[in-house]
Amino acid sequence: xxxxxxxYESDIRPLFRQKDHDSMLKHIDLWxxxxxxxxxxxxxxxxxxxxxxxxxxWPQEQVNLFQRWIGDxxxx
Length: 76
Ligand code: HEM
Description:
binds protoporphyrin IX containing FE; 54% helix; mainly alpha
């Protein structure tokens, strides 16, 4: 059976903490589907190289999930 598509609202958005949202708002609104889509490549780059979030890299599974979401190109 095919893996289920990754959803922004239920899988991705909850990974961004209040702190992430507030700290990044000047650059990217991490709680906005459109904004995260628009900046998906830059976000993935930072998540992968571990420079964001500024206070500690995500676990690999979370980075993989974000990458899958980009690949799926799925709706909100
Ligand atoms: C999952 C959470 C986060 C993601 C995906 C993320 C992603 C990014 C990205 C893609 C940029 C580059 C923006 C641009 O070039 O326009 C950036 C910049 C920045 N972020 Fe974050 N961020 C996160 C959390 C945080 C947190 C928690 C802080 C600090 C409390 C922070 C502070 C900054 C600052 C100061 C910059 C501008 C300076 C720089 O480019 O290093 N971010 N972030």
